[in-house]
Amino acid sequence: MVSSLLRRLPKVSTRGLLHAEQRLAERYADLVRLAYLVLPPALGRHRRVLLAHALVQRTLPAAASGVPAPRAARDDAPPMSRSLYVPVLREVLALSRRPPLWPGRVPPPGMLLPRLPVVWGLRLLPRAGGADELALGRALSELSATARAAFILLRVERLTEAETRGVLKAAGFGGVEAELRAALDLDAVLDSGAAGVLASEEFDPCTVRARPSDLLRRRRRVHLAGIAVLVALITVVTLVVSDGAPTVRAGAGAHRASRPAPAVDDVVRVAPGAWAATSRVDFTAWPARGRLVRDRALLRRALTAWAGDGHATRISRSAGTAAGPPLDAPHLLYAGPVGGGTVVLLYDGQRLARYREAAASGARSLVLARVDDADVTTAAAVALDTSGERVRYLLAPWVAASWTRDLMRPDTPARALAVDGDGLTAPVPVFNPGPRPGAGAGAGCGSRTVLQLRSSSRIAEHHAFLLAGLGELTAVHLTYTPLPGQGAPARQPREATGPTALLTWARTGCAVGLPHGPGVKAVNVWDFAEQDLPDGAGPGVWTCARADTWRGPGEVAVALRTAGAGTGEQARVVARARATGACGRFGQHIVVHANWRSPKGAWYVLAAGSRAVKGLIVTGDVTAGTDGATLAVPAPARARTAVRARLAPGLQPIDLPAGRSG
Prior knowledge:
It is built from 14 helices and 28 strands. It has 662 residues and is α+β, with helices and mostly antiparallel strands. The chain is flat.
């Protein structure tokens, strides 16, 4: 591969060619990873793999001839960066600057055209990683190409800020200073293991899996393409024979180019025990269940409705869920009577589709929901039927036991939930999400019934978890993160089934309220700080509740709960923020402050930070400081203040808006 490229190099000495080949071979994997991560994620993993290899191979002439860096960057960039990093980044930048309407987005002839042998339909994909790789990949996708390049050079290649700045300028990137700051901001919120995650197989385009595309669908497309070519040839011959006379009938070209509905025979049916023999425990492991899984007419109607041909079908979808028919033959998860109608549940690898036919009126509906990152918990229950204040769920095959419990009564034991042989539950009370923000202190929560499920011991021993249904297809996973230990590493979210977790949810959940918007995937409540409150008010615990959506963005609410009699006294919300990374994996350093009135009627400014905060400074109507992570200072009732946190070098906290607590 490298030798064939050397024959096209500019005329340089044989020693220079051998040196260039040696340097490229030594750094090839690192350079391909750099190109792969900087290329736009929208291209898809298969195309990015091919482009990354082609771009790096194209830089060999520059490496052999020793391309000099611009004068402005020569003092900053090291020799290796000038000869290898810079040409690779130049090629990536040139590719991203092509017009968006470039035919097929295919590079110019002679640049990146594939070499023989070529296998049609072959897909080359890096190996899939875990939750850490997925979270880091999403964070990188939100950065620009310049910021991604800066982050990789800083984190993986271990360049200094000055060296990184020089490489980017030499490669021709614009807005280097602002994008470098964005990369540094992301670097500041990541832990030290990010470099190791980037070195995993998830981001290694040199370690790939070869997979085919959908063979049956491709065969149908070949037949359709052959028919289209034949029709075109007949049309051309007809025009030539008729001396070009316009004899084409009206409507002859009115072929509707819509994607056909998948055939019933193509629907995927998974074996009942597949979930126990795979490492991917999600909707792909669900078997086909229900009395009507062999009803071809019902399945054909469901597939036709999903393909957009069901004109009498009412279609709705969750926020962030793509419209349109399935790209591949979907999995059949359920088909059978539920409540007052018949339900078909399908899954195409990215979305769930629930097709329902009402028995009384015959009305048809289709609901689509995004579930592309489901796991053993978020793929454990799907709502099949909602009637009034009751909902029936279809449970995953790995659920060994099921209960219901009232989240507002942590001391009340959970009640057993009946489940039939197909995994369909008895009717469950609808979860009351609580008052909307600003509804007032008197607005109650009422009943907050949640599912408490336990996985089979073949999945994980003693693994129980909570799910709350908010009116969508999938239920929301509820978790809890306890207070940080003294000198201990940062704690991770855990299942909210223990006594402390249930008590925290009982006293915090109603106050913060679960998001009313669609597309919520999980909610975690995090006790991030504790302090002794003034005037004998006892201990106060600061809690941040974060709701994550299937799309990625999340919203948070910070509450302060004080020592109160019983579990009925609710915490008070002191701050809210939308579309923020605070209180999540990439926003672990937070600081918040609020005006607070003590039981004796005196007003204070309270401030608290997460475990990495080493000091707090309050300014404004009141000025004070402390070396700890919490602060309380007397202040006027409506004091206007700002707070700054001191952390370890390189870390930067997220300041949440101040609120008032009475």
